[in-house]
């Protein structure tokens, strides 16, 4: 089914999600973005779809779009780990290690023990030359996921 046809015929949210995830997995980022955006239009309360859209925009190099969407999502729900982590990645890519650390720490507070987020915190701490703190977090990561 073509993208235009699926969007015009009102493909189900579950089908849109599956196709968007598959497209992203295949590196078809613009198609994935369109499908996630359609899902967000069908289900505006679905913050998970919004986080997936922002993450895909980030992967496509559309940092400003991803950032604006994350900020909007967080206005409605300040405890969205995915939006916070995406903002952390955006700040890291822009060279703002301290800003990235703050977002990753907020994300970790939402979902304690989330290994990828803890790893990001440790990496930011290392990049900020806060080596003792980084080592402690790396040891926490190893304890959670040896």
Describe this structure in words.
With 146 residues, this protein is mostly helical. Helix content is 78%, strand content 0%. The chain contains 9 helices and no strands. The chain is elongated, with a radius of gyration of 17 Å. The N and C termini lie far apart (43 Å).
SSE string = HHHHHHHHH
Span of the ends, CA to CA:
43 Å
As a whole number of angstroms, the C-alpha radius of gyration is 17 Å
Structural classification? mainly alpha
- In this structure, how is the largest beta sheet organized? none
Number of helices: 9
Return the average pLDDT rounded to an integer: 93
- Percent of residues in helices comes to over 70%
> What fraction of residues sit in β-strands?
under 5%
Q: What is the β-strand count?
A: 0
Give the low-pLDDT segments.
none
* Shape label: elongated
Primary descriptors:
146 residues, mainly alpha, 9 helices
Summarize the entry for a quick read.
The chain has 146 residues and is mainly α.
Which helices and strands appear, and what pairs or packs with what?
Blueprint: H1 3-8, H2 13-25, H3 29-42, H4 47-59, H5 63-76, H6 81-93, H7 97-110, H8 115-127, H9 131-144
Helix pairs in contact: 2-3, 3-4, 4-5, 4-6, 5-6, 6-7, 7-8, 8-9
